[in-house]
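Rotation project, supervised by the postdoc (A.L.). Task for the rotation student: set up a whole-complex structure prediction and record inputs and outputs verbatim in this book. Inputs entered:
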Amino acid sequence: MNQNSTFSGADLELIDVRKEFPGFTALEDMDLKIPAGQFFALLGPSGCGKTTTLRLIAGLDEPTKGKILLGGKDITNTKPHERPINTVFQSYALFPHMSVLENVAFGLRQRKVADPLAKAADALKLVQLEHLSARRPQQLSGGQQQRVALARALVNRPSLLLLDEPLGALDLKLRREMQIELKAIQVEVGLTFLHVTHDQEEAMDMADTVAVMNKGRIEQMGAPEALYDRPKTAFVAKFLGQSNLFIGNVEDENANTISINVAGNKISVPKARAEKHKGKIAIGVRPEKAFFHEEEPKLGAGYNLIGPGEIIDIRFTGVSNQYLIDIPKIGEITVFAQNIGKSPVTQVGQKVWVSWKVEHSFGLSDLPEKTTGA
Amino acid sequence: MKAFDFKKLILPFYAVIAFVFLLLPIAYTVAFSFNDSTKSNAQWQGFTLNNWLQVCVRQGVCEAVGSSILIGVISTLIATVLGTMIAIALVRYKFKAREAVSLGLFLPMATPEVVMGSGLAAEFFNLGIGQGYLTIIIAHVMFCLSFVVVTVKARVQTLDPALEEAGRDLYANPRRVFMKITLPLLMPGIAAAALLSFALSFDDFIITYFNGGQTVTTFPIFIYAAATRGVPAEANVIGSAVFFLAIAIVLFVQIRSSLRNTRLAKLK
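Outputs recorded:
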């Protein structure tokens, strides 16, 4: 574990991979490239095909078509035990009939690595569980089992580590702790991590690159900040954080921006931040980038302003308040305001206008199924 | 003083009666294994240890037990290996006739032994296979197999497939996964199936009688033959010994697992 130099992740490439099960297609012609040493997250709701992707990469299922390359080598037709890939399973899948130490040593023994028990003990040290090595897995808590599963995979120094919702069974506090720990271990060992999760905070917090999956396809891929700042589809805008979306026909255009008309309100987006420039489009803004005003403000061209509307709900979440504002003919809009001063700053029933900077708008390539709201 | 509550006594009374009903024949068998009888073992003649000490003196008793053990061990081995493989296949592999195979395996358990025994005897006769150890073992494997499949199948169904996948993921080839993960985890079920299978084989009279009982004398057949002249006390000795052996096995397993649990509890 302490010989960082011998550790090196390999890059993973999926070329046109498709997986069909009787009756449905779990994965539609997926292309994916994960550079060596990256922490990559596959994010999506359950049933989107992310676990299928993982199983194909591990070799536990075979793709219907397509190729899987690891470090440039075609591994599509190799068996799971022939692939330098290890998995941390969702259920951990620790062997109940072996001690913790034997669990961790299992992979080393299969490959006939010298001194498996000493290396397994080192791996347990990395996850701070060396004092529990004699126990059976069933005697450990969920968090401890999770770490044993991680040590059991890491000790083999795989080129690629797959994590299948590894934190899903843990409570919130432990999950946050493990996120930090997992990220620290990834940085320390320098492996390529492929993390599958439905928790968007977890994905954004840990990953270098996030791919958002929906219905067997990757909707959008990029750095967490970029994805959050400029979602390209309605699904991404809603799944990754919250969004207020407005739909209208493009009625105005100048050199840098396009504008739509929504019930008499003009909403603009910079051209560079819009996927479509013509016809009926959806423009969105994140709730924390929007502000409300109790009196109609005088704002320049750099701002979008809609209203007046009425505050219909205020939810206190500690660091911020979430204000739900109903604007006639537009719908409900969510605005987050930090609780820096007095909280809440206003009352339910208050008449307000909502504004945000045009440069914070984003234009989507498709239309949401529902018209507005977060 | 409270009135005597008769209702409260009904359940304990019923329990005692039920146990007496269940255990009296066993107690009787054990007691009469110490009976100082010469010919008939039906009347109490006095206490002796001779039956236990000289159990093999009487012609045929120990030979019969030996045959039964030999047949039991061989049929159990074959039935357990085949049954375990069938059970795994039935749970883990999806094939067309899976339902039909499950049903087919259940049929021998539902068929009356007399019918199975005579049918098999006719089959052996038509095939020209002479009755003997071979036919008895084939017959025993046939009826033990269903019980092994049912017992092991229950265990396979509780086995998380992710464990075997983890094994494959951790560089174990299919054979190693089976030996190191699948088999050890199925072991309790396989052991239970083997014990059941041995008990069924050791005990069987009807099917054995039809398929080799004339040439090979197993323990039940010996007793049956001897019963016409009164069951000898040595039969009670063997019966009691088997009973105590079974109790000993159960106790051993129970004590071992409770010891392990206390040891594990201490670690926690």
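Student's summary: Chain B has eleven helices and no strands.
Supervisor addendum: Chain B touches chain A at residues 160, 162-163, 165-173, 176, 180-181, 184-185, 264, 267-268 (CB under 8 Å).
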